[in-house]
UniProtKB/TrEMBL annotation:
<keyword id="KW-0325">Glycoprotein</keyword>
<keyword id="KW-0503">Monooxygenase</keyword>
<keyword id="KW-0560">Oxidoreductase</keyword>
<comment type="similarity">
    <text>Belongs to the copper type II ascorbate-dependent monooxygenase family.</text>
</comment>
<keyword id="KW-1015">Disulfide bond</keyword>
<dbReference type="InterPro" id="IPR000945">
    <property type="entry name" value="DBH-like"/>
</dbReference>
<feature type="compositionally biased region" description="Basic and acidic residues">
    <location>
        <begin position="247"/>
        <end position="259"/>
    </location>
</feature>
<feature type="domain" description="Copper type II ascorbate-dependent monooxygenase C-terminal">
    <location>
        <begin position="2"/>
        <end position="130"/>
    </location>
</feature>
<dbReference type="InterPro" id="IPR014784">
    <property type="entry name" value="Cu2_ascorb_mOase-like_C"/>
</dbReference>
<dbReference type="Pfam" id="PF03712">
    <property type="entry name" value="Cu2_monoox_C"/>
</dbReference>
<dbReference type="InterPro" id="IPR008977">
    <property type="entry name" value="PHM/PNGase_F_dom_sf"/>
</dbReference>
<feature type="region of interest" description="Disordered">
    <location>
        <begin position="235"/>
        <end position="287"/>
    </location>
</feature>
<dbReference type="InterPro" id="IPR024548">
    <property type="entry name" value="Cu2_monoox_C"/>
</dbReference>
<dbReference type="GO" id="GO:0004500">
    <property type="term" value="F:dopamine beta-monooxygenase activity"/>
</dbReference>
<protein>
    <submittedName>
        <fullName>DBH-like monooxygenase protein 1</fullName>
    </submittedName>
</protein>
């Protein structure tokens, strides 16, 4: 799960908002489902884009049937579902390599926002560090993966190696980790594409380590360093896609609701695509 906090959208998005017209959803080989979620105030709006049958070998830019307006103060969350049963007990951690994982969405929008390039998040709470037993990491460019800096007895060990051999992945641990990723506060980062003097200084001091921010609402953080806190809104009613196929004229937003003739959809985790061409359409959905 990745967050773009309200503080980030308030900082970067102009008062009139931006128009998203396409999205590229991305995980690595363990990804099975992806949602690009959109929150405003006390409401979860229709998903911008989603794929309940994600396949790493079939990734594409998805044009939305209706453009989506993102306003300052909106919250964006990318949620991914993984299946790691084929890894034979090896832990899968985040990283750039395809043997590691990521959860991303690339939004295509207008008008252009000079200096804005990315919005990402990670969990930095003490409770989370105590759960996994890792308190500081760095990125080893030679090895191409994150390595442990603290605690000292594991210094230099890759996070993937540590997670595979030093964590007891019983049912309780898996449940606790998922709960933390969903409900613990995330620190969102939305720096200038070209680092400011202050951001460059922090980068030199910390390397690839995170700079912690205090707990609080989503606008609390270090705005000079483009860091803002964000939480998943578990207190509001989640968006639920309609249980029936809709014509294009009936859809309310993202491409997940509009379905062409010859196809049918079900809830998250199950999508059936129509076979072959139909007289009135090609028989596909979610694209």
């Amino acid at each position: 799960m990745g967050h773009c906090a309200t503080g980030c959208t308030s900082r970067w998005i102009p008062p009139e908002g931006i128009s998203v017209f396409a999205a590229f959803l991305h995980t690595h080989t363990s990804g099975r489902g992806v949602r690009f979620q959109h929150f405003r105030g006390n409401e979860e709006l229709p998903w911008i884009s989603s794929d309940d049958n994600f396949n790493f070998n079939y990734q594409q830019v998805r044009l939305l049937r209706e453009e989506r307006r993102i306003l300052p103060g909106d919250q964006l969350i990318q949620t991914c579902v993984y299946n790691t049963m084929a890894r034979n007990g090896s832990a899968v951690v985040g990283g750039h390599s395809t043997r590691h994982e990521m959860c991303m969405a690339f939004a295509y929008f207008y008008n252009r926002i000079p200096g804005f390039a990315t919005c990402a998040s990670q969990i930095e709470t003490e409770e989370y560090a105590n759960l996994v037993g890792i308190y500081n990491t760095t990125f080893d460019r030679t090895r191409g993966e994150a390595v442990i800096a603290e605690p000292a007895q594991y210094a230099g060990l890759s996070v993937a190696n540590y997670a595979t051999n030093n964590i007891n992945w019983d049912t309780q641990m898996r449940s606790d980790l998922q709960r933390h990723h969903r409900l613990q506060p995330h620190t969102s980062y939305c720096p200038n594409a070209v680092a400011t003097v202050g951001e460059a200084a922090v980068s030199r001091l910390t390397g690839n380590n995170a700079v912690s921010v205090p707990n609080g609402n989503s606008n609390v953080g270090n705005s000079a360093m483009s860091q803002y806190e964000s939480r998943f809104r578990a207190d509001i009613t989640p968006f639920s896609p309609p249980p029936r196929c809709l014509k294009q004229s009936e859809s309310r937003g993202g491409n997940h609701e509009a379905v062409r003739p010859g196809s049918e959809t079900k809830q998250f985790g199950r999508t059936k695509f129509g076979r072959g061409r139909r007289e009135n359409g090609r028989g596909w959905s979610h694209k």
